[in-house]
């Protein structure tokens, strides 16, 4: 049964809870505890934009955000394009399990293959007194969990634009429109339109001519060479990140170590990346303005290198993983990758997208999620069960946060 505090929490959030099947919600929380899940992935905000640098996701603004809030050391990691996955690595590798971004046990992949993919990671630890390690990671490739999304949404979108381009380039439509606009009747209409009132225009031309010519005037033809270029960029990104293959992992942070005697260590250090991942990452000082500027320069250099290698981008984090009222990280994705996220008109409509980009609510959700994750991790792994109402209340709060996040721009 749910405790009194749980019902009080429900009552306070009735408007949101009414949107959810209460029985399913309770079952999800019970299931979360029954499966001994100790953490819940936060949403990650993009870095703030920079008006001065015309950057929709700005390295400079991301680093300055942390610097301005007292962070004296940052860790910068490659951003992996996979599916977020917490690894509950066990001393007995066969007992290892995996948890998705939304706190569900990963079960619809080959779990034996997934566990075998953790062999090298498992060998990095001395298991003499160690029982469990909870590790943040990306399950790779993206297609391992996202194949239907790749095929149905991303692939379908690409196919629609390829067909659209082929029609426009082969149908002669643009040439016909251009011919009409060069015709004498159209030019006479436009000259008259520029010198007379709307009433006089209606008196001088038949209504069907006005409708036709006004439609032609309002029509904005695509720049076909540009359109083709951005379709190709989109296709290249999708082909690169949508590759299929055997499951492997890119771990990037150790959440917690649980020892055989029941004691625990919350690692709270984003540089734990180097304990579990052989890929390059940067650890840079931001103790003063001069250090920050040097570090920013180094991050830009590395970002350019990764972009040239067709990587998605980077993640900027404080060295200390959990700091009260700070987000876990900022992501910075390159503009070619953002074509895949925003669509083939991203660059064409860059100014529009730039002005509309607002991260304040996403950032607020990220901070709230991360603080809840800290509270969850402080619940002892051995104390997780369906009777732990403190944990159940935390999980409930986090699920309510999902409802808020579902209303945000999914491209952030």
Task: Give structural notes.
The chain starts with a helix and ends in a 7-residue tail after the last helix. It has a 5-stranded mixed beta sheet. A 5-stranded antiparallel beta sheet has the order 4-3-5-6-7. The chain folds into 3 domains: 49 residues; 244 residues, 2-Layer Sandwich (D-amino Acid Aminotransferase, Chain A, domain 1), CATH 3.30.470; 93 residues, no CATH class. Helices cover 50% and strands 15% of the residues. The chain is of the alpha+beta class and 412 residues long. The chain is elongated. About 1% of the residues have low confidence.
Helix content: 40-55%
CATH class of the largest domain: Alpha Beta
Topology pattern, helix = H, strand = E:
HHHEHEEEHHEHHHHHHEEHEHEEHHHH
* Estimated radius of gyration: 27 Å
Q: How many domain regions?
A: 3
| Regions with little confidence, pLDDT below 50 for 5+ residues | 6-11
- Shape, per Cα inertia axes: elongated
Distance between the termini: 38 Å
Total number of beta strands = 10
Instruction: Using the 3D structure, state the CATH architecture of the largest domain.
Output: 2-Layer Sandwich
CATH homologous superfamily identity of the largest domain: DNA ligase/mRNA capping enzyme
Beta percentage is 15-25%
Average predicted confidence as pLDDT: 92
Major beta sheet, strand line-up: 1-10-9-2-8
Structure classification: alpha+beta
CATH topology of the largest domain: D-amino Acid Aminotransferase, Chain A, domain 1
Helix count equals 18
The profile of the biggest β sheet is: 5 strands, mixed
């Amino acid at each position: 049964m749910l405790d009194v505090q749980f019902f009080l929490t429900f009552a306070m959030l009735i408007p949101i809870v009414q949107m959810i099947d209460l029985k399913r919600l309770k079952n999800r929380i019970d299931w979360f505890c029954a499966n001994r899940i100790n953490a819940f992935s936060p949403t990650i905000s993009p870095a703030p934009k920079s008006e001065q640098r015309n950057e929709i996701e700005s390295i400079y603004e991301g680093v300055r955000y942390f610097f301005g809030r007292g962070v004296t050391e940052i860790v910068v990691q490659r951003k992996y394009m996979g599916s977020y996955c917490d690894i509950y690595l066990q001393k007995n590798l066969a007992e290892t399990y995996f948890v998705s971004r939304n706190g569900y046990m990963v079960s619809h992949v080959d779990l034996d293959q997934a566990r075998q993919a953790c062999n090298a990671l498992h060998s990095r630890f001395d298991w003499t007194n160690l029982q469990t390690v909870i590790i943040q990671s990306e399950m790779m490739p993206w297609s391992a969990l996202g194949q239907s999304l790749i095929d149905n949404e991303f692939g379908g979108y690409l196919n629609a634009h390829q067909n659209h381009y082929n029609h426009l380039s082969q149908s002669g439509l643009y040439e016909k429109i251009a011919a009409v606009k060069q015709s004498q009747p159209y030019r006479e209409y436009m000259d008259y339109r520029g010198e007379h009132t709307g009433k006089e225009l209606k008196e001088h031309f038949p209504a069907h001519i006005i409708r036709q010519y006004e439609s032609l005037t309002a029509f904005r033809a695509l720049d076909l060479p540009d359109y083709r270029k951005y379709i190709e960029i989109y296709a290249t990104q999708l082909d690169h990140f949508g590759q299929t293959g055997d499951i492997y992992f890119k771990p990037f942070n150790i959440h917690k170590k649980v020892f055989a005697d029941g004691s625990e260590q919350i690692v709270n250090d984003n540089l734990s990346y180097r304990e579990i991942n052989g890929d390059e990452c940067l650890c840079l000082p931001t103790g003063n303005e001069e250090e920050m500027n040097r570090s920013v320069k180094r991050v830009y250099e590395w970002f350019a290198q990764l972009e040239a290698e067709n990587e998605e981008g980077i993640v900027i984090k404080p060295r200390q993983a959990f700091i009260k009222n700070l987000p876990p990280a900022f992501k910075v994705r390159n503009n070619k990758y953002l074509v895949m996220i925003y669509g083939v008109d991203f660059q064409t409509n860059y100014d529009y997208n730039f002005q509309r980009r607002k991260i304040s609510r996403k950032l607020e959700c990220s901070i709230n999620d991360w603080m809840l994750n800290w509270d969850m991790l402080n619940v002892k792994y051995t104390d997780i069960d369906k009777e732990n109402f403190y944990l159940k209340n935390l999980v409930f709060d986090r699920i309510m946060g999902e409802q808020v996040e579902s209303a945000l721009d999914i491209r952030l």
